[in-house]
Amino acid sequence: MFTAKDSYVFIPRLVATAIILWLAWKIWAFLKPRNAHTMRSVVIVVLGDIGRSPRMMYHAESFLENDFFTDIIGYGGSALIPSLLRAKIRYLPEPTKLPDWMPPLPFIISGPIKVVLQVLYIFIELFTIPNPPEFILVQNPPSIPTLAIVWIVGRIRGSKVIIDWHNLGYSILAMKFPRQGERHPLVRLAKWFEMYFGRTAYAHLFVTEAMRDFLVKEWDLQGIKVVVHDRPPRHFHQSTPQEIHDLFAVKYRAKILSEHSLKGFLPRYDTPYSTAFTATNASASDPIKRNTLPPPASAIDPIYSQVKAPFLRDDRPALLVSSTSWTPDEDFSILIAALDKYNARAAASNKKLPKLLVILTGKGPLKEKYMSEVGELQKKWDWVRCISMWLEVEDYPTLLGAADLGISLHASSSNLDLPMKVVDMFGCALPVCALDFSCLDELVKHDKNGLVFKDAPQLAQQIETLLTGFPTCPRLTELRSNLLPTSDRPTSPPSRPSSAQISDDVWETWDENWARYVRPLILRDVRRNGI
């Protein structure tokens, strides 16, 4: 017989059961696979500093220009390109820090906790986006844990996962174990992880044909496979004398003045009327007039409107630029040895060789080591100076466009990726000397848009060959002419008869390249449905 006493037990249990069932239904309704995603929406996942991931920022920019609702998940730190102001940026908490409410813990405990929190933060960001995105675009590497996370979220929320293969994560990890390499148990585990969770994506984008061919053969990748070579964005171009003047007379004047190694090395200049690279008709103190009449007496203290536009100085040093992340896959000892050899040759040679100012951009763990080594060497150098700089995003292409020669020391851990820095340089019509590896010829065409070297002596010889007679350098001018847009190339033939014309598609902008290869991929279902 059901008594009043029983009701005091039964009713709370019934209510608790109903609540549990309701919560279970709500959780299942949220987590179950679905196809009702929001059309024209994408989430871009970067397990790193978003501002230091140019390819992913360019992807985001292209999605925005194609009217996609765009969320970006990643870490802060560096400035983003201005066009991403329209995107929803979801910054992850700094991975090296534990929450403030947690007490200090030894690394053996705090390390795993940080990994768990990192996974949790990414899951939270992906699941708190109100409507399931149509696409999740993830950068690889890093592979762990992002490939597994987007694999799970894609199945739960019905989103199509696109993997942008920049390199192979396990090959980078193998560099930490030089003795065992890919045979190391952790590397073998990482390789399995990357293959398992990366194999079945909706689509795969590759930076090289070599990477596509390797992964299709070795891992039997499923889904759509498209090679999307890196290309420079539209605003990259060869800098004008005015832009070069503004860069060194205004924005980075203090940086140049603070470098003690440059005192007495650079030609005399008088800012704001001249820099070490540029001059105006008001540069009365500099013996550098070219194609201009001597300035009138009033020009010593001129009204700015009377000052003519800047021009390049004939006595300027040659400007070499190398962009780097200062990691073990870029051996800067090669460049240091080459500069040492160049200094000796310039001092002993009767050829007209210029002084070299080498600017190294970027941040990374090996920066102090190499710059300390350079600092000691250049105390004995008369013809070479080497400095490091960190540039704002908008100033980086201006520096590349101002340089005379670019240097790439990128050595691919997988031999399947290409250096983005070279793409940026080509976008600014800057020829390069690039360290050779197996698939580099997909980008750098030897003796057409740059030169390829294998060691320091060969690099030193190439720098000397290209800069002999500076600022009038026929070989360098020819390489640069092959990098200019067709409309900007000189009508007269180059100084050397050349078959060095490269295919036009190499010099497409990022927008043109993306529209050709990625846009059809993300809009295929729209066209199929007649929308």
UniProtKB/TrEMBL annotation:
State its Enzyme Commission number(s).
2.4.1.142
- Which pathway does it take part in? Protein modification; protein glycosylation
- In the UniProt record, does the keyword Cell inner membrane occur? no
Q: Which Pfam families match?
A: Glyco_trans_1_4 (PF13692)
Q: Where is this region: Disordered?
A: 483-502
Q: What is the membrane topology noted in the UniProt record heading this document? A: Single-pass membrane protein
Q: Which GO terms describe its molecular function?
A: chitobiosyldiphosphodolichol beta-mannosyltransferase activity
Superkingdom is Eukaryota
| Keyword terms | Endoplasmic reticulum, Glycosyltransferase, Membrane, Transferase, Transmembrane, Transmembrane helix
InterPro entries with a match to the protein in the record: ALG1-like
Q: Which Gene3D superfamilies match?
A: Glycogen Phosphorylase B (3.40.50.2000)
Q: What is its main location?
A: endoplasmic reticulum
Localization (cell): Endoplasmic reticulum membrane
List the GO terms this entry assigns under cellular component, sorted alphabetically.
Answer: endoplasmic reticulum membrane
Tell me, in a sentence or two, what this protein's role is.
Participates in the formation of the lipid-linked precursor oligosaccharide for N-glycosylation. Involved in assembling the dolichol-pyrophosphate-GlcNAc(2)-Man(5) intermediate on the cytoplasmic surface of the ER.
Q: What is this protein called?
A: Chitobiosyldiphosphodolichol beta-mannosyltransferase
The species this protein was found in: Mycena albidolilacea
**What high-level taxonomic lineage is stated for the organism?**
Eukaryota, Fungi, Dikarya, Basidiomycota, Agaricomycotina
